[in-house]
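Running log. JK asked me to keep both predictions on one page so they can be read side by side. First protein, sequence followed by its tokens:
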Amino acid sequence: MKLQSLERKFVARRALWSDAVEAAAVLDTLMALAGAALAAEGVMSRPRVLDPLPSPAADGAAAAAPNGAEGDANGTNAARPVGPFFHATQLRHPALLSGGGGGAFVPNDVRLGGGAPRLLLLTGPNMGGKSTLLRQVCLAAVLAQIGAWVPAEALTMTAMDGIFVRMGARDNILVGQSTFFVELNETGAMLARATQHSLVALDELGRGTATLDGAAIASAVLDHLAHTTKCCGLFATHYHQLSSSPHPDAPAADGEAAAPAAAPMHMACAVAGGGDGEGADGGGSGGGKSSAQEVTFLYQLTEVDEPQAGPPQPPTPLTVLLASPTNWTGACPKSYGTNVARLAGLPAPVVARAAEVSRAHEAHASGGAAAAALASDPLLRAALECVRRAKRVAAAAVAGEGDAAGAAALAEFEGAQQAAREALAAA
């Protein structure tokens, strides 16, 4: 009887108890976030979460803020960017503040939107830190929007209406769905729900099917996110050909130079051995030598191509003409999968054979790409012909073939030069 009376009194004040539980939960959460910020290794900062569509007139005071926790993450006093963006300086992973093996975690600057490309096409070696970078960007966005401090020197971002992540591999065998189907089903949900103010992260989309189909699907999804959804995000892939796919520039604002909708970057690494055909020490159980390249992971987000190991090679007319200083560089040349095979302990003969087959495929693919470029680009063909004729003029002069031969070679060169001018004008 007394128990029932106590229950009735408790229920009668259920609103009071509900408010007390809610207050205790909020207090516990805030104390946990504050304790995590105080106990964290390295610099922690209070993020700035801004209006997704700021008004330039109403934002004059914020634009003049000094650099630091209250200033812009890019360290400038320029007007705040219009549109969605995510700018972080020296961002670290909140759960991996110390690197593996006792080393320090390598922080990175990440800029999405707001004068930078909205999407980063992220390449790099296996185990190079791509997935970790995707996770730390998404976690930083969550921490910022719940009011927590973030493991970075500075973070400024616009409020995101959702974070969509496609990562990992699993099937749903009970309903007959393969790993690839589940992957595309989740990607389809992302494309249907993500908006311009969303943050997306995709890790190795298209790996569950044939290389050609997977690369085609990945390219189409990247193009949709860049030009239809127009959201901020990161797209990690081992399909290096995506970095050469056309991604037209986003419209410029206020007369500023336009940034590409998507730009390639990579996780830097140092490569040694294997490239010149001489074997490096193998890590497999079979002993002996392996021709696989040894890769040292630097975990640094890089937007310029790193020089390759080995002696520098003289440029050929084709490599000079294919180079374009106006392109955003940053794609990793390869994924160095045989290095992971060596680290994982595959027998050295298996690793060596894999490296040999990989080099053969790369040589075949590069030759096919050069032939395709020559076949499809009349300007490139005309320029190469001009180079060949110029070499003929030089050879005739060096060999002392006489005035007539030199004059004929010079006339051929001038004709090729005119053809190149006409091809350039037509382009």
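And the second, directly underneath as requested:
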Amino acid sequence: MINIVTQILLYLIVLVMLGKSLDKYMAKVYEGDKVFLSPVLNPIEKLIYKIIGTNNYRLFFL
């Protein structure tokens, strides 16, 4: 019984820690700041925009 409770608590702690990290990362992405994946993903994103034929790098829907 104690083993099950320990596993659940450990799972919840890891889940909260990952949630906070993802929250900070997503906030930077949505604000347009550079993140550690920017050098890798920006060229791919630009290529996709080129393939679909859009002229604007940043698309604003609001």
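Observation for JK regarding the second prediction: The CA atoms of residues 43 and 49 lie 10 Å apart.
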